[in-house]
Amino acid sequence: MAPKGKNLKSTKKVTKGSASRRLFNEESDYEEEKPLLRKQKKKQSFKKTPPPPPVKVEESEEKHNSDQLEFEEHESGQPEFEGPSTESPFAEPQDDKDSPIRETMVKCKNPKVRDKTRWQIPKVHKIFFNGLHRTNRRAVKRPIFEEKRIITKGLIRYSKVGQKFHGYDLGWTTRGGNSFLPALVRDFYANYQAHLENMCREGEKAADQPLLDKVLVQGVMVDISEATINRFLYGPNFTPQATLPTFYVQLNHRENQQNWLDTLIADEQPKWLINSGERIFKASLNSEVRFWWGIVRTWLMPTDGDNIFADDRAILVTSFVANLKLNFGEIIAKEIKNHVSRSDIAYPFPYLITRLCRAANVLKIMGLEEELLAKKTHNPIRNEEI
User: Fold this and answer.
1) Residue 107 — pLDDT band, cuts 50, 70, 90?
2) What are the beta bridge partners of residue 347?
3) Which of 121, 275, 286, 332 meets the CB 3.0–4.6 Å disulfide criterion with 266?
4) What percentage of the chain reaches a pLDDT higher than 70?
């Protein structure tokens, strides 16, 4: 009887083992070392397949090793921007085949390699993070000032101002569909400022250095000349008009400004006209000037302040009233340098800077760049009777 019971127990054990084996491999004929077999099968079932090899960007293979960077290039099949568009304030050059507009995504595994790509100019690393410092009021030291889409609804009722607006061809201030990359914009301004500071000799400042036509951003030269800016504003076939010397005469000779600014007077004689030390307040200006002030402070000489005119902005606003010829690409290029030279004001023109960098094929770093869409608008006609 004992051997028979032993055989029954053995048969039951084999049956249990064979059932367990069938859960992992129904065709298995092993009858020994069942625990080892079960352990091996479990290990194999959770074995991960190796990831596919990364797609590499040809331009970057010469700079970085394949084990340091993993590149992923995004191609939509068509250019993202196909020439001047009514939905964008910056018209791309159509005939520039050497500068295709595309976005290259770069995913850096090694932070040291990524930082080496970004911080190629001495001092740029310090300047970049210094702009992100918080003030005593917990505000970012150097915020980004977005261009605001101009609302011209109702301008047709004011023929005088409307004719000037269309005569200056300012339609690019009214078009939407914009976006910008904050980190890329800060990279651009930090590199511009670092380049100017490295040019300084003993006793010189960044403001004393000449205007730059190109800025190195993440190892790529970005063209920011006035000619290129005008092409982005108006298109490749646009021929800008030269700014009349009167504009710069008034900027350089402060003693002659008061008489010329007389055109800003509304109905009474403000204090700033009598005393050159007085500030120019928006409330003392006529309605047409307030309209041009909205254009100037949002697109040409950006500022958050709305009620007080600075000298340069007052001269530019008066130039609109006097219908002087103005080269906006030249004005914007100089304004970019003016903001670079000061360390206490916001970074302007983020949409324009982003588009210029994209056209130059500046790499977009994945995980670092957050694209923000334009949402802000400004209506200089609201509550005004021009």
Assistant:
1) low
2) 144
3) 286
4) 63
Mean predicted confidence (pLDDT) in 208-235: 92
In angstroms, the CA 206 to CA 191 distance is 12
Residues 21 and 159 in one domain: no
Tell the residue number behind the tokens 């609109």, with chain if given. 320
Q: Is residue 304 part of a domain?
A: no
Residue tagged 């200056």 (tokens): 168
**69 and 36, same domain (yes or no):** no
Token couple for 277: 């030390």
pLDDT tier at 68 (50, 70, 90 boundaries)? very low
By three-state DSSP, how is residue 148 classified?
coil
In 3D, which of 333, 4, 297, 295 has the Cα closest to residue 152? 295
Range of the domain at 19: 2-45
Dihedral sign, CA of 62, 65, 66, 68? Answer: negative
Domain count, the chain: 2
Q: List pLDDT tens digits, range 152-205.
A: 888 888 889 999 999 999 999 998 778 899 989 999 999 999 999 888 888 888
pLDDT(303) > 70? yes
User: Is the separation of the CB atoms in 185 and 354 below 8 Å?
Assistant: yes
Note whether residue 258 is domain-resident: no
294 within domain boundaries = no
Asked if 220 and 365 sit in the same domain, the reply is: yes
Q: Are residues 150 and 378 in contact, defined by beta-carbon separation less than 8 angstroms?
A: yes
> What are residue 173's phi and psi, to 5 degrees?
-80, -10
Q: What's phi and psi for 25, nearest 5 deg?
A: -155, 105
pTM above 0.85, yes or no: no
Please name every residue paired with 69 in a beta bridge, in sequence order, or none if there are none: 108
Same domain for 134 and 34: no
Side-chain half-sphere of 93: how many Cα atoms within 13 Å?
20
Q: Are residues 166 and 206 in the same domain?
A: yes
Residues 94 and 225 placed together within one structural domain of the fold: yes
